[in-house]
Known about the structure:
This protein is of the alpha+beta class. The protein contains five helices and five strands. The strands form two sheets. The chain has a three-stranded mixed β-sheet, with no helix packed on it. A hairpin with a 7-residue loop joins strand 1 and strand 2. The longest helix has 14 residues.
Amino acid sequence: MTASDDSPFGSHRARSILAEAGLQATRQRLAIVDILSGQPPRHVSAEDLFDALQSRGAPGSLSRVYGSLKRFCETGLVRRVPAYGNTVWYEMKGEDHHHFYIEEEDRLLDIPAGMIHLAELPPAPPGYELAGIDVLCRIRRTASEAGPGASRGAQTR
Length: 157
């Protein structure tokens, strides 16, 4: 990172990403893109993102985070990951891939692209077209890995 990229509100890279999507580069949007596009890429909820923004001192409210995420989804910059549980997850749009959902932790892990092969899909009903396929594999720790006192349905978030 160069000195000009060292702002807690977003890097030059975040500015470029927003410009390519045709979005205005506000301090909050810069910080959101910077967090989502960090290494490794993250799956975040709006609440997690808001907490990360607050720790950086970025301006805004939780409702503005939801508004930014909605706008990012509309422009194709971010995608909403359909998942089980109470949390709605977001990630930067990139290479198509699928996810493991860890039930006890209410957390997502990426499944590398090319690991899932779908042989045949039904045609979409008349008047519709297939927009995408999301495979979500729900997983939980085995009894031997969970450790003593672990509860099967406990949420750790």
